[in-house]
Amino acid sequence: YQMVKDLGTSAETTAITDVMNGDLDAFIQAYLRQEVQLVEA
Q: In terms of domain of life, where is this protein from (predicted)?
């Protein structure tokens, strides 16, 4: 069982090959959602 985690945003995925090939969209979206929440708070 393998997983990629972003400890800063708690985003995670099991699509390791995709992440290693540059598919970071899920992590970028998680970061942007977190930033929007901080601005709105």
A: Bacteria
